[in-house]
Design a protein that fits this description.
By secondary structure, the chain is of the alpha/beta class. It is 40% helix and 16% strand. It folds into two domains: 210 residues, 3-Layer(aba) Sandwich (Rossmann fold); 188 residues, Phosphoglycerate kinase, N-terminal domain (Rossmann fold, 3-Layer(aba) Sandwich), CATH 3.40.50. Strands 5-6-4-3-7-8 form a six-stranded parallel beta sheet. The chain has a six-stranded parallel beta sheet with strand order 11-10-9-15-16-17, sandwiched between helices. It has a three-stranded antiparallel beta sheet with strand order 13-12-14. The longest helix has 15 residues. It binds 3-phosphoglyceric acid (3PG). The site of 3-phosphoglyceric acid has 9 residues, from loops. 3-phosphoglyceric acid (3PG) binds next to loops.
């Protein structure tokens, strides 16, 4: 059965690929998103839920007799979570229950030789795709189909399967370059996400409250612009650096240290865009108090007299946000409210996740640290909770945007599965 998108367009699944072309004995490039929170010092994976999610797709391809070449990124060059995929490969092996090899190369001769001789039923994880500089360039599928990255690997494979829902908002070679050249399909994670989210996000789900924290401020601002333009959000509750940006945009004092920190991160340059959103009527709340660090001492400081370094939202903010969430029909949470790696600044995020799930609304949690918190609170199996593998991709999808990764698969389907276009 093909995967049906909310606009009724159809994407081929692994079943369609097998039926139309036959998977047994063929070589498949499988793009997953194993990008996980890692400990900044040890570089060990802290939360392996994304890797675990992809294990079933890997196992299924192996069981259907394919040789599977796994691609994923981890972090961004220069960031503390930018690291190799060796540990990811062994975690994948444990969850998939099939033997998984790793090579510390992506497109070089060593990787290409191993791929060319990969036997059916075997899995090879290549190293972090972002070790290749082309992979961090955003460009069209046509251009990326001609990239050295894609040109080196595509001739070695028969098919391309994209299971990386969480990276579908990036127009990068490993996401959009292969579908134009190879018959392509969605993997099981991508399929589950697209089907669940398309069903769930309906007109009846109003009011829709988005709780946005974390450090990816550029991304979150772009997402808010889409959400607002597409009238896809009724209330926004901010935390983390996102909150600090909007406080500056509202003219609220966040204390000298925090303002300087935002400046070094290039975030103050975003203030005019944030202000424009507020002027256009985006209903957005900012915290009323914070947990801060003043000379090594943890304090709760109300907005208006912040002296310390902001580390988490404070108890009054939690109370205010909890009340707003009680009115919601749908709550989307993305990004932690504080520096959750430090147990002293985890409480805000824990309280928001708990309040959201207990509000009775349908809750979608997008990616990373909040997944860990939901599991820690024993909420993971709740029927009103969808834990998505996506972060930015999830929010852009909910904003009604067509994601480049999905667009490339649709384009590929027109070329390699014309029968699907006819059966809509
Ligand atoms: C994510 O975690 O949102 C995806 O893995 C994409 O990562 P990126 O924001 O570094 O492109």
């Amino acid at each position: 059965m093909p995967c049906r998108l909310r606009n009724s367009q159809l994407l081929p699944t692994i079943d369609d690929l097998d039926e139309a072309y036959g998977i047994k004995g063929r070589r498949v490039i499988l793009r997953v998103d194993m990008n996980s929170p890692v400990d900044p010092k040890t570089k060990r994976v802290i939360d392996d839920s994304r890797i675990r999610a992809h294990a079933s797709t890997v196992r299924e391809l192996v069981e259907r007799g394919a040789a599977v070449v796994v691609l994923s990124h981890q972090g961004r060059p220069g960031d503390s979570d930018f690291t190799t995929l060796r540990e990811h490969a062994s975690i994948l092996e444990r969850y998939a229950g099939v033997s998984v090899d790793f090579i510390d190369d992506v497109i070089g001769p060593a990787a290409r030789e191993r791929i060319a001789s990969l036997e059916p039923g075997r899995v090879l994880v290549l190293d972090n795709t972002r070790l290749i500089s082309e992979e961090i360039i955003e460009a069209t599928p046509e251009r990326h189909a001609q990239s050295i990255f894609v040109q080196r690997l595509a001739p070695l494979a028969d098919y391309y399967v994209n299971d990386a829902f969480a990276t579908a908002h990036r127009s990068q070679p490993s996401i959009v370059g292969f579908p134009l050249l190879l018959p392509s399909a969605v993997g099981r994670v991508m399929e589950r996400e697209l089907e669940a989210l398309s069903k769930l996000y309906t007109a009846e789900s109003k009011p829709r409250v988005f709780v946005l924290g974390g450090g990816k401020v550029h991304d979150t601002l772009r997402i808010l612009e889409h959400l607002h333009a597409n009238k896809a959000v009724d209330r926004v509750l901010t935390a983390g650096l996102v909150a600090e940006l909007f406080m500056l945009a509202k003219g609220i004092d966040i204390g000298e240290q925090n303002r300087r920190f935002l400046e070094t991160k290039g975030i103050t340059a975003l203030v005019p865009r944030a202000r424009r959103l507020l002027l256009r009527g985006l209903p957005l709340e900012t915290p009323v108090d914070f947990v801060t660090l003043v000379d090594g001492e943890v304090r709760v400081e109300p907005v208006g007299s912040i002296k310390g370094l902001i580390r988490d939202i404070g108890p009054q903010t939690v109370k205010m946000y909890t009340e707003i969430m009680r009115e919601a029909r749908l709550i989307v949470l993305r990004g932690p409210a504080g520096v959750v790696e430090d147990p002293r600044f985890r409480e805000g995020s824990r309280a928001l996740v708990k309040a959201a799930v207990e509000s009775g609304a349908y809750v979608i949690i997008g990616g990373g640290h909040l997944n860990v918190i939901a599991a820690e609170l024993g909420l993971a199996g709740r029927p009103n909770l969808h834990i998505s593998t996506g972060g930015g991709a999830l929010l852009l999808f909910l904003a009604g945007e067509e994601l480049p990764g999905i667009r490339a698969l649709l384009e590929s389907a027109r070329k390699f599965f014309p029968q699907l276009a006819d059966s809509r």
